[in-house]
């Protein structure tokens, strides 16, 4: 059987989807991830496709354990997303979703930095349509901001890889490190898409503005490709430990007060990425395994949570916690599936988050990052607080909003069911995931101490939620905007730039007035001289001229004889 | 909504049951600590009730700090839709219908 590079299949499918309608289109959509996974299965374990271009050695396809795991993960994510979006009748969204998934696959299988860069940019350009497909003014402007930042990340990567090529003479995507200046450029480029602190605002700005189905795709690919690239290029970069710990912590404060429940999930996405970045920064085999495993489980449980909130948005048209509540009454299945996702992200034993997050925590202790471990433990309690309790509580329970809508269409329910089954499946049988991780490290998540302490942490966090609510200390959900870093380029920068622009405008106006004055002066003079009655436009008869000639001659004669 | 079907948590007793189950689970896990020997790695882990206290205090601090932080960062809902910036020097004239000449 002929095997294809994984991205090629998705690109071809996008073309087929653009050309078909109705049932054939749905069949193409569903067949793509299934055939893609089969194709990946059939690809030889050491398959590689290299070519020479202008003296550069390119390797657009490289298969190894890490890329294979991400490859399967993206096929699962694409399948779940496609099933979830099967009811959508929007060619724009369906085509861009397939192109986006294909670009992400291309990026993780790219063996050289130039191919990686091309897919990195393709992800930016294809994914923005999932935001714009909401077709609202807010989504349009959020999409523009998103695209600008994604393209900046691409530019940094391009400059970084050119400097890398000049310094090392190789474009191979292996360990990069921060020894050379190019390393920092590439690290910041990856950090933009991995939502490093202060660089994260595009994510919480754009993801909640995308369509209900688009956010499911968005949450799966871009950030995870960045995590993959960090794990390949910068394992053991200690600086990342502190960056990751900050990422794990600060978003939970925003998530507690945020009203838009999909924005709450976006903040918790940054928080989960923080755990992965810490794992990459620690760099031990266990830590890298933990980071990759957590990326795997996060795609599924975060997808599940985004799907459940997408279902709420799809059915009610609302997503603010202050306007929702009591939905369990008529959306019981969505509520249960949401709780499965919430339990997974909170790392309850027997759910997927538990078996992956604990590897990172253990690795932090083993490498004596005691302070970092405390920070991560706080972040774990916090994530349960805002994603584990707040999301299901404010959407499905809390005060009764009086909204009575049914569960979403069957395809949406099915997609959530697949994700929920995977969450529990991985949580109960972690061995399957562990055996596919990049390194062979023996790790047992289920021992008495670990299960007990994790339960204690989570149950007492829940107790704190109950206590705060009973005391009336819990901040109410308010219809409001909460400022984040994006304020700096949406408000501060324009405000600072304004005096500059005003100065430029004034100088420009002055110069133009000067020029206009000069032109006007010239015109005035010309009109004076040549206009009707002007000195130079007077008509004179030949007689006058003869008189003048005679007069001049007379003067000449007079002068020459005297 | 008289006559509407009564759902599970419309009955306050069911809510109380859930809460009692939570309290019972908290007490159970706390008391299990006395029975089970925990192996510890972190210097603070041996403290009795370390995880429960850390979880509870952590979350209370989280919420109180978030509440304080909200006072600083909260803005009206239409904050980013507002055009509080004075109009662009030339565009403003065009919008007012004046001739830009």
UniProtKB/TrEMBL annotation, chain A:
Record field: transmembrane: 28-49, 69-87, 99-132, 144-163, 183-204, 216-233, 239-257, 264-286, 292-313, 334-352, 372-393, 414-436, 540-559
Keywords: Cell membrane, Membrane, Oxidoreductase, Transmembrane, Transmembrane helix
GO molecular function, one term: oxidoreductase activity
Coiled-coil annotated residue ranges, if any: none
Stored InterPro entries: ComplexI-like_HydComp, NADH_UbQ_OxRdtase, ND/Mrp_TM
Stated name of the protein: Na(+)/H(+) antiporter subunit D
Keyword Membrane annotated: yes
Gene Ontology, cellular component aspect: plasma membrane
Organism whose genome encodes this protein: Parahaliea mediterranea
Domain NADH:quinone oxidoreductase/Mrp antiporter transmembrane: 110-379
One GO term (biological process): ATP synthesis coupled electron transport
Location(s), subcellular: Cell membrane; Membrane
Membrane topology: Multi-pass membrane protein
Keyword Transmembrane helix (UniProt): yes
TrEMBL record, chain B:
Keyword Transmembrane tagged: yes
Membrane spanning stretches: 20-37, 49-66
Region (Disordered): 82-101
Superkingdom classification of source: Bacteria
Keywords: Membrane, Transmembrane, Transmembrane helix
Name under which the protein is recorded: 2TM domain-containing protein
Organism: Parahaliea mediterranea
